[in-house]
Write a structure and sequence with these properties.
Two copies of one chain form a homodimer. Chain A has 647 residues and is an alpha/beta fold. Chain A is built from 15 helices and 26 strands. In chain A, a hairpin with a 4-residue loop joins strand 16 and strand 17. The radius of gyration of chain A is 26 Å and the shape is globular. The termini of chain A are far apart. The relative contact order of chain A is 0.11. Chains A and B meet through helix 4 and helix 5 of A and helix 4 and helix 5 of B.
Chain lengths: 647, 647
């Protein structure tokens, strides 16, 4: 078969593929990750690239503007390679997988240690768990065994277990692979060993190493989100967090949301690819953080993972097919402890991986983790927790009951599925004010030149656009406004937040009407889910004592502006509390406290879940919420007053 | 490197080996198994072969008779291959690994079913357990699951576990590999599955198959002896035995006793070879019995194994090195449940293997199994159990206490380590009477032409030789007796039991003085171990209510003759009871009854073990027992009166 050489600029990554390969597949093979919301189905038109040279066939340019066609843009997944090619990948088409280079590691570590990391800080609510006794999922124990003699010659295994029992008061399980090496190990280490014991199920020995000197034991907490994956390196002996790292989920290449990915999983090698993408993310985060903090991979003994039900299926290599077929049943909600290496995770080969239990297809371990870390499940006040992610997860309850649901918010607030979206990283616009002459005043992360808009930026932007009159209640941009920042391009109205010259990228940073539609659906999905949950339990919004806002970007949201656009209900602001990435915090808690692990199982058992996708009440609420702030403006009386800008 | 072709006659097996290979290794490579008591160390001189043609170097002929040297005999392990060779393997040098051919299978099955098998019948004592409720180690359960709908859409795993709980009243563990295939399996099998649950530790699902029709579930019980390996195919639903099969342990090629094998295990690939030999035996027995009874390998879900501590180390691939080094500690006595396939056993890949726990290096799971199957551990009368094997295992006690020891009897009574020994198979001499003119009257198994002497035959023979005056108290053959059957050969006296013409083999069947020495040490080791155990608990032989004789050949022993030679104590014959292969019976009990599994663990915990090898009292007893019947003849007043034969 004829081979074709493809060069991807500007990085210059090269690959050889068979004649007839599609260009998206070629890009993935070259390690060039393009955004692709539809998973390579030719639907979303996001994987745009510019062909500089070469022979190719391009199926359809329906999703390209005249300008783009002139500039030789093609949709990669619809383009067939017919010969050697040179391809330019525009910034906007790239999935941004940030990666620390080794030389940056020390700098990064310094930043994290000094608290200046870009990552969201720990959930506040988690602070209330400080009284828990440290009882980590794995523990390393130094054991000095008395040597056998004729008066004490029990078997090596019994000797080890006897001494462990003396120290710990229990006898862990010891499996055959350890017994096999025990005789030589004990004698070559002069009867001094370090034993790692896992407390996931029955206490079990997971590793035996020689030596009795310094003991270092680390774990990772992970939140596996549909759009982002966050990992946290934890010192298990001290109970402290060394650093946190967030990356876009590499599975984005195969589709934006869980449904697209489940469909992709059903294709040839689909599940394998999705699993490998998640494992690669996890390995990158582990490598970066252990590298930055000088932790040996062999001292990482456990991973605690929280994520939605589909993400967990993909991570555990479980076929997720039936999640998307009525009546939407997952393979399992409680997943057993596995060896991390069996999931392709490169740490100590004896390390284990555990996950927080979920409740249903749409209420996963991430919600369990959120409820766990927020702590409201053991308190009297009725509390609402809202996790603004691609699946907007919502739980409501107190110590007596919990009801939960998941709203398909889409990834707009996480920076994908919108033209200039990005994650909350350097250069992301995180706040906006629009002046009366429609000029935006931007606040970017680290004050860098703007590179895109992150979730909090979109919330502020929509609020300001509505307040200033740049757009109307239905989300239409008012093109009659007299400013160069409002324009029509390829028949679609857009508002320019930063012209190419003002930005840190090679194009104008804009918000299009189609973006507004996306964001409107996202905010509407979350708001209406909150309303339906309340109605289901016959409560009014005023009955809620507290609203916890969770999510990787939660700390940067301006509540006033979120209420202003109708994302969050209009209740006294002091009832709101940001708790950061509560899924990650819950995973970390499970890593550190036995009580939390028991609580997580209890939460998953007791939580009632509500299926919104099939609920008429939800459909009605959702349609009513597709306005700024809402059809029923009376509900938002205390929110932003609309001011008129000049024409 | 130069390759040399070796042909082994009479079978004509061929192999190519490197120039410089020793002939024993070459034989093993060709699948020709020679006896080798020393493990190829050039010590025992058992691996004798005749070189017909070819170039070779032979190190030393110290172990060969003049006649043998003339006939071009060499010791295979001391012979270096220097070119192509043709080698003849005499019958006496062959290890007899009996193997059913496929065409023999039906015949074999018929024999077994009609009770005409050569194997020893079940232990009698085991009959007392008939009141136990069948509760096999693995159980297959047919489950018809209700299909999920919108009102019942718990996860597939929860659904399966819920339905199992309805049927069984408990929830078994379900591991990730099953969860991975569950979604498709349940739907493709129309929600009807057969679940295999193992009850070794916490109940755990070991297999899920589609279908709900006929359920067949089989297990194997195994006794892994130093010299012989016995396996028994058991129908787990009916609790019945289909058939039993015994083979010589292929590890015999690497040495006769446990110490030789432990030393061999320390050599390059030694442990691997020893393990592979045991696994091959097990696979052969499984293949033969399942083939004979039309049982599918995929319906064999569990193996229950009993064996001495060294045999268990070798089977589980555990380095046995420290067993033979002071203070003689095994790696483990309680071994965890493993997947049989991980030990190279070819059945259903999901089948498990469990073993009966041991107590110490010299008191293994075979003794636990013996005590278990004999049942005396829950009864009032003080009982002695004697297992006459290569390790003569002895336990003494009742419902309150048990004390056990193991005597290094050697394999003489199992037919190796003696010139014309064989296992109790067709043609084995199992009983002998010697007439006043010193002519032997033989009884062979199946009345076939004699091929060798089995354990019961040796016991009878020694008794008769002593009674008739063929040998004296010290085991010396009286060459002054006037008969052609007593002669000297290569300077050693021997008694001819069957001349070549009378026998089914191509040589005279004899007992040499060196054989008598071996047998004397064997019987002395067992008798003195019994005496020491009694002394340790301050009891006289008369305090024993019952003596259970265990061992594969136990049913054929003439107690009078065994007492006559000083193998067993001289107490009223009605106190003796044969219980067959009690180790195999114990393994089978553990396979079938939950109560027996719990009892086995309890027996292993409560049994006190006595280390005989370092005990002065034992040394004294042993030396005193190296006579026929004993130094202290008064102890054997009721035994065979010595009659004079004619000179």
């Amino acid at each position: 078969m004829k081979k074709c050489k493809i060069v991807f600029k500007p990085e210059g990554k090269k690959v050889e593929v068979a004649h007839g390969t599609d260009l998206l597949t070629a890009a993935i093979s070259a390690g060039v990750y393009l955004t692709s919301n539809c998973g390579g189905e030719g639907v979303c038109g996001r994987c745009k690239v510019i062909v500089k040279k070469g022979k190719y066939a391009f199926e359809s340019n329906a999703r390209l503007s005249d300008d783009e066609i002139k500039k030789k843009y093609v949709i990669a997944c619809l383009t067939t390679v017919m010969g050697d090619m040179e391809v330019f990948v525009p910034q906007a088409s790239k999935l941004h997988f940030e990666r620390l280079k080794n030389k940056d590691a020390a700098k990064f570590a310094k930043k994290v240690l000094s608290g200046k990391t870009e990552e969201a800080p720990e959930g506040k609510a988690a602070g209330s768990k400080k009284n828990l006794k440290l009882s980590s999922l794995t523990r390393k124990i130094g054991i000095n065994l008395p040597q056998p003699d004729l008066n004490d010659k029990i078997s090596d295994a019994d000797r080890l277990l006897r001494e462990i029992n003396k120290v710990c008061g229990f006898t862990p399980v010891l499996e055959i692979s350890h017994i096999r090496k025990l005789g030589r190990l004990l004698r070559s280490s002069d009867w001094a060993v370090i034993v790692t014991i896992a407390f996931a199920d029955t206490p079990e020995i997971t590793n035996i190493e020689p030596g009795n000197s310094s003991i270092r034991n680390f774990g990772f907490a992970f939140d596996i989100g549909t759009t982002t994956i966050s990992g946290q390196l934890v010192d298990l002996d001290k109970g402290t967090v060394l650093g946190t790292r967030t990356l876009y989920n590499k599975q984005l290449t195969f589709g934006d949301d869980v449904i697209t990915r489940i469909i992709f999983a059903g294709e040839k090698n689909g599940l394998k690819k999705l699993h490998a993408a998640a494992a690669e993310n996890i390995n990158t985060i582990i490598e970066d953080l252990t590298g930055a903090f000088g932790v040996s991979l062999s001292d990482v003994t456990v991973l605690s993972v929280a994520g939605n039900t589909t993400m967990m299926h993909l991570l555990y290599k479980i076929d997720p097919e039936y999640i998307r077929r009525e009546p939407y049943t997952p393979a399992a909600n409680f997943l057993p402890t596995v060896k991390a290496k069996d999931l392709g995770i490169e740490i100590n080969p004896r390390a284990i991986l555990v996950s927080l239990p979920g409740v249903s297809t749409y209420v996963g371990g991430d919600i369990t983790a959120g409820v766990l870390s927020s702590g409201f499940y053991s308190e009297k006040p009725v509390t609402l927790i809202v996790d603004i992610g691609t699946n907007g997860e919502i739980a409501l309850g107190n110590e007596e009951w919990i009801i939960a649901a998941s709203a398909s918010a889409g990834p707009a607030f996480e920076g994908t599925g919108v033209a200039c979206g990005m994650r909350a990283a350097t250069g992301a616009i995180e706040d906006v004010t629009i002046s009366p002459d429609f000029e935006p005043v931007l606040k970017t992360i680290k004050g860098a030149k703007p590179r895109g808009i992150c979730g909090s930026g979109y919330i502020a932007l929509l609020g300001e656009m509505f307040r200033s009159g740049v757009m109307d209640r239905s989300g239409k941009i008012d093109i009659s406004r007299k400013t160069k920042r409002i324009r029509k391009k390829d028949g679609e109205a857009e508002y320019v937040i930063a012209f190419k010259e003002e930005s840190g990228v090679e194009y104008d940073i804009v918000i299009k009407e189609s973006d507004i539609d996306n964001l409107k659906r996202s905010k509407g999905a979350i708001y209406s889910a909150i309303m339906v949950l309340l109605k289901k339990v016959g409560m009014d919004i005023s009955a809620i004592s507290r609203i916890y806002i969770a999510g990787g970007f939660g700390n940067f949201i301006d509540i006033d502006k979120a209420v202003c656009i109708g994302l969050l209900p209009d209740i006294p602001r002091q009832k709101y509390l940001f708790i950061g990435n509560s899924s990650l915090a819950g995973a970390r808690e499970a890593l550190l406290y036995e009580r939390s692990r028991a609580d997580a199982a209890e939460i998953a058992r007791k939580m009632t879940y509500m299926e919104l996708s099939l609920d008429n009440m939800y459909s009605d609420e959702y349609v009513a919420s597709l306005f700024f702030p809402h059809t029923d403006i009376a509900k938002f009386s205390g929110s932003c007053g609309k001011k008129e800008g000049r024409k």
